[in-house]
């Protein structure tokens, strides 16, 4: 599953006309630019890209390294590349650099898909009301981010227990660190409004989850929930009336897009460990979640206007379009 492709296609189909300020019958496209990258490539940079992409350093492609460099430099996403040349850095047995690494590439970049996050937006049903609706929404979001720290820590331990690849475990632990940072960012906004963020509730210790239960939960909460949440974050980061909200959601977004990709990569891994009947059960759970998504998506419009004032119809269109892409991709 190429999550970025599915998200980009959805955003272009649904939001490009409105973000560009033109009627849907016009030939509108997401903002784009021609770009060139000519940068030194260090061992440390390769390690970071390897972790983010979930690929061993020796298996990283020139395209992946170019995309990561361009995104770090511009904050946009690389599309088609016209050229790409890679010279990996070389070190001796003592760790001394014997050959400087370099990445040189050129292509087209798009503004979409630098933004995304996991389902913070599913918070609207939990709002407690009060004079400060924005503050209450941020409180609930901050609590969910803090809870996500625990969720990714738990998932990493579960995967480790089942002997999953070290890269998947490492990406879960990295995601936990991301969520901790997100919770801090949102807490700052909450406290600036004179409110406080309660600690997330932790459930009573349950019996050890089976691999099937973990896979089913990932299919629903990760492959569907987190993936759609990436689109919601894009809307918040683009349309919020508050510069502070736009900055925070744009910061959160990049990490959350990787978390969505992690969910799909985990789905592929679970598929190699489950029986045919178990895979069918996971697929059925995901299909139900996809079928429910358009109606659930409409609830995002209930958030205060400061989050962008996007209509329920637009959120439903995003969900419906994305669902179509995901069904095609997951069946491939």
TrEMBL record:
Signal peptide: 1-20
Pfam families: Rubrerythrin
Keyword terms of this UniProt record: Lipoprotein, Signal
InterPro entries assigned: Ferritin-like_SF, RNR-like, Rr_diiron-bd_dom
Keyword Lipoprotein: yes
Limits of the Rubrerythrin diiron-binding domain: 145-263
Superkingdom per UniProt: Bacteria
SUPFAM superfamilies: Ferritin-like
Keyword Chaperone belongs to the record: no
GO terms of molecular function: metal ion binding; oxidoreductase activity
Protein name: Putative lipoprotein
